[in-house]
Amino acid sequence: MSEEKSLNFIEEIIEKDLQDGKHETILTRFPPEPNGYLHIGHAKSICLNFGLALKYNGKTNLRFDDTNPVTEETEYVESIKEDINWLGFKWTNEFYASDYFDKLYEFAIILIKKGLAYVDDSSSEEIAQQKGTPTIPGIRNRFSERDIEENVKLFTEMKDGKYVDGEKVLRAKVDMSSPNMHMRDPIIYRIKHAHHHRTGNKWCIYPMYDFAHGQSDSIENITHSICTLEFIPHRELYNWLIQQLAIFPSQQYEFARLNMTYTVMSKRKLLQLVNEKHVVGWDDPRMPTISGMRRRGYGAAALRDFCDKIGIAKRENLIDIGLLEFCVREELNKTALRRMVVFNPLKITITNFNKEEEMVSIEDNPEDPNSTHRMVPFSKEIYIEQEDFMEIPPKKFFRLYPGGRVRLKGAYIIECNEVVKDNEGNITELQCSYLPESKSGNDTSGIHVKGTLHWVSKAHAVHAEVKLFDRLFHIENVAEAEGDFKDHINPNSLQIIEKVYAEPALLDIDIQKKYQFLRKGYFCIDKDSTKEKLIFNRTVTLKDTWAKEVKKN
Ligand code: ATP
Ligand code: MG
Asked: Is the CB of 213 under 6 A from ligand 1?
């Protein structure tokens, strides 16, 4: 296979496995626990697992790791599927670890019958105490000496609901003096009288992560089971169970999880932000969730590009959120429709414009060679931004000032003739004249101006609300900061501008459309918008190209 980019370490392993004939084809899986919405870290895992299968002509299963009945909900299952679809990936099978509860129960019985598992009546404190420390070996208690028959009987009774939560557990009999604490007779089943989102009340015993995950991989014949670094110490037990049960030899590989600046990346913490109303929901545009980013206007291609750019590492690192924003801008620059929106209006009357209105044609995206055009109404009264006028301009102020000229984007050159003020001296209006022969695209005036301003016709302006977002946290490394992570929430992460003035083309409510408001940033329509009330989210700011352009001229 010829490559432009060098292979990452997992691709190297896969290519070797395929060359050696260890596997004919690869099968990966994405195994979310349905206890929250997916975040950008999950996107990395999704892009990796699905991306490998696409690259090597393999397949990827979506498996819900739903072995904990208490925290899991169907709402999360649906959101996870929606997010993966939106990211552009298709799973081969949709499986649930809970589909394997019968099989896992059989596996447990096999272990018991091989003398490799026992029912322990100790309390969790006792079990923890007997486990020892990494330097002091653990000790086995008297329950570990129960014979096979008694263990089968007790485990069956556990399943049949004879005991209360915590009264007994099933433990694998591995090695109480292993330097790896996970090997010291780990608990593999616990009693939990709880309703499960899929199996209902059928079960009151549930397998622990280590006794479900690897076995589910084997049941599905997963060839490469890819997880994050914190699972390295689990690998020994993963392999031990596969060996003892003589099931399909799936293999676990670990990569560094994604950590990003100015945010948190743990469902537990994100749930707190939602429950304690620091944000409006899982899909709040400030959240690092896939649904939040989608609502904010980030494109799926930008997220995939970001995951590709950060690559796969074996060591933890902290990725600059600016890189994600760079990818978002790059995509939007190519696709976003340009529109004009005035945030702080200053009225201009064009004294010599005597028509009712004139439609001017403006390109939707100058970066796109096949760009469409839209018709924008121009009339006698228009709005420009207050900041685009100065009565006493500093040097190199290329916007409007008394006696100065600018071009109105896509329309005409105007000249400021008079500044109108109220009794208190506030500027209420500018009186300007326009040069009829300076129309954009057909300019015969021979006059060159340095500034181009965005504008909106007053009579045609559409009102909208705009939401501007800042970082959710005001420190870079939230995960490693002292104290409660919520102490570092940025209190000013949301700014609402209740009324802006937009050109009429923005009345078209289409969640799919992405916009660049000239000189303001990239925006999308918020899902709460109605015909009566338009709401736009700022996806990301522009790089300050305006300042640069002004300098160039
Ligand atoms: P969290 O700590 O946010 O709750 P998790 O690891 O418990 O995450 P799971 O639903 O178990 O979440 O994760 C599904 C898959 O996504 C796992 O394979 C996990 O390793 C991977 N994953 C989770 N978080 C990240 C991350 N930040 N970077 C890369 N992969 C991740
Ligand atoms: Mg988890």
From this structure: no
